[in-house]
Amino acid sequence: MGRMILSICAVVVALGLAGLQSAPNDAQADQRNHQAAQEARQSQEAPTSQSEEESAAREKAAQSERDARDLAAQESMAVSADGQLTEVAIQTWLVGWSVFLGGFALIISGVTLWITVTTTRTQLRAYLDISEVDFTRLNDTLACEDFCASFKLKNFGETPAFHVVIDGRTQRPWRDDVDVIDDRKADLPIGGITRGDSFTYQVNVKMTRQDHQRIAGGEKVIWLDVDVRYRDAFGKERATKGILDLSSDLELHIREGSHVLT
Questions:
Q1: Is 262 helix (H, G, I), strand (E, B) or coil?
Q2: pLDDT tens digits, residue range 152-205?
């Protein structure tokens, strides 16, 4: 009985010693396992950090590439817009020059047309002028002599003259020692004168003995003032004016500078 108890005690003691010896070994094993787990975690974390850095670098590179593409696209758009603006400016300039040249050509055409029309009308218009002047004695008395001053009004133009009106008047200087005789004649409307035709105008003139003496002395005593008005075929009012002086040989001569055609 006692031997059995001793055996049991020996077994218990042996188990206790074995437990004491295995405890440090278990602690070391736990420590080793913990270190191994940390190393495993570090080995897992290291690739993760490296992967994140690589991912960040790739994202940064991709962003830089996108920024570069956006910048290139904006630059291309700016260049295109500048080209379009330049093209519009050139087109506007060309249109402006075209309008200017067209307007200039139109002005030149208008001036040329005006010159052509004016030249044509000048060449084709009616021209009434004085021709075949005559001074004829009709009769004489002791006091004075009667003369007939006449001239032809001829159309030297290419078209008829319309609404012709002639005003021919004898003029005398107003002097105390000269008898003044009024030989004025009213306007004479004669209608029209066709191309190449003429109209003879006459006015009576009375000459005194004093007139003869002064004319013989070289004075301009009596003259015929002629004023002709008419309208040409183009509707423009025209005029012919002249002064016919009576000379000492009793002939009428156009006074220099008085002959005007408009």
A1: coil
A2: 999 999 999 999 998 888 777 655 555 544 455 556 677 889 999 999 988 888
Would the pTM of this model clear 0.85, i.e. be above it? Answer: no
Find out whether 157 and 261 touch, Cβ atoms under 8 Å.
no
- Tell how strand 252-254 and strand 198-208 pair up: unpaired
Residues 6 or more apart whose Cβ sits within 8 Å of residue 8:
none
Check residue 250 and give left, alpha or beta (phi > 0: left; psi -120 to 50: alpha).
left
Q: How far apart are CA 68 and CA 32, in angstroms?
A: 53
DSSP strand pairing (260-261 vs 237-246): antiparallel
What dihedral angle (degrees, nearest 10) is formed by the CA atoms of 23, 27, 29, 31? 180
The answer to whether residues 170 and 149 touch, using CB atoms and an 8 Å cutoff, is yes
Q: What is the pLDDT of residues 197-253, one digit of tens each?
A: 999 988 888 887 888 888 888 888 888 889 999 999 999 999 999 999 888 888 888
